[in-house]
Design goal:
Blueprint: H1 2-8, H2 13-19, E1 25-28, E2 32-36, E3 46-50, H3 62-83, E4 87-92, E5 108-113, H4 118-126, H5 131-146
Helix pairs in contact: 3-5
Bound molecules: zinc ion.
Length: 154
Amino acid sequence: MEYILSEKEDECIFCNAISKNDDLTLFKGKDTLVMMNKFPYINGHLLVAPVRHVSALDQLSQYEKGELLASVDRSVRILKEAMHPDGFNVGLNLGKVAGAGVEDHLHFHIVPRWFGDTNALTVFADVRVIPEHLESTFENLKPYFGKLDLTIKN
Ligand SMILES: [Zn+2]
């Protein structure tokens, strides 16, 4: 019930994450942020967004696009190290019809995958509020993102 009510509020979860402290946001950089999906498809489901509230890739500068992809890359590496998944689904849902829950603020989904998780995925899709998982996953991942350095190295 709390979820249904709060979802109707006209606030952007990403802009909120930048301006407030919460227990889902793992990384706040100059141009990007990384947060845990409050309603994950599976444990370790992350969202990577630009700091600016934009809905399309062509509204980002070349630099912001680079930072965004670098943040996706680093998040994948951190999940590999911390959670040892066998693979990943990384994607962008543009527009409601494509499944975007928050369509006004562009964000990448990073979904870690494990061999044999197909059944778990169906279960998680139905029961999507797993606070224990979120808390322990946050505690697990936070130190990695605390060390995150997005300085471009060639
Ligand atoms: Zn926003």
